[in-house]
C-alpha cells in the first residue's frame, strides 16, 4: 500500500476542483434566459466549463488507474479527501490560491479557473 504518490495527489486535487467547476456550470445551466442551449447567450461559457469538467474527470480516472497499476489505492471517500479546500489544493498545489464555491463570475473565471488551468510558466495569469 502506497502512502503517498504524485498520482494520489492528482486524484485528490482534481476531486477538490470538481465542486468549483460543477457549481459554476449548474449556475449557468439554470439561468432562465436559455441555460445551455446552443442559441443562448451563455452557451460558449457553459460548453467550455462542461468540457473542463469532463477533462478533469478523465484526469482523475487516469491518475487513479496509474496509482492502482503500481499497487496504490485511490482514496476519494475518506473524510480528509472530501473536505473542500478553501486555500490551495491537496498535495501542496497552489497553496496561495483562494478557492470558493460560487456562481460563475468573471472574477472567479480569471482568479480561480485561470490560475488552475494555465501552465505555471505562462504569463497569461499571475495567481
What's the structural blueprint in terms of helices and strands?
Elements: H1 6-29, H2 43-69, H3 79-82, E1 87-89, E2 93-98, H4 106-117
Helix pairs in contact: 1-2
Short note summarizing the structure:
This protein has 127 residues and is mainly α. A hairpin with a 3-residue loop joins β1 and β2.
Fold and architecture overview:
The protein is mostly helical and 127 residues long. 53% of the residues lie in helices and 7% in strands. The chain is built from 4 helices and 2 strands. The chain has helices spanning 6-29, 43-69, 79-82, 106-117; strands at 87-89, 93-98. It has a two-stranded antiparallel ribbon with strand order 1-2. A hairpin with a 3-residue loop joins strand 1 and strand 2. The protein is globular and about 50 Å long. The termini are far apart.
Structural class: mainly alpha
Strand order in the largest sheet: 1-2
Give a count of the beta strands, DSSP E runs of length 2 or more. 2
Return residue spans where pLDDT drops below 50 for at least 5 consecutive residues. none
Taking the alpha carbons of the first and last residues, their distance comes to 35 Å
How much is the average pLDDT? 76
Strand portion: 5-15%
User: From N to C, what is the helix and strand string?
Assistant: HHHEEH
Defining key terms:
127 residues, 2 strands, 7% strand
Amino acid at each position: 500500500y502506497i502512502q503517498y504518490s504524485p498520482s494520489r495527489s492528482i486524484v485528490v486535487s482534481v476531486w477538490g476542483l470538481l465542486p468549483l467547476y460543477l457549481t459554476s456550470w449548474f449556475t449557468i445551466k439554470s439561468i432562465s434566459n436559455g441555460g445551455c442551449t446552443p442559441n443562448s447567450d451563455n452557451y460558449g461559457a457553459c460548453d467550455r466549463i462542461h468540457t473542463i469538467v469532463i477533462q478533469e474527470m478523465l484526469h482523475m480516472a487516469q491518475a487513479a488507474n496509474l496509482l492502482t497499476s503500481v499497487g496504490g489505492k485511490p482514496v476519494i471517500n475518506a473524510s480528509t479527501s472530501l473536505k473542500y479546500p478553501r486555500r490551495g489544493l491537496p498535495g501542496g498545489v497552489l497553496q496561495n490560491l483562494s478557492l470558493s464555491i460560487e456562481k460563475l463570475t468573471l472574477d472567479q473565471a480569471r482568479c480561480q479557473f485561470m490560475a488552475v488551468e494555465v501552465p505555471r510558466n505562462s504569463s497569461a495569469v499571475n495567481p
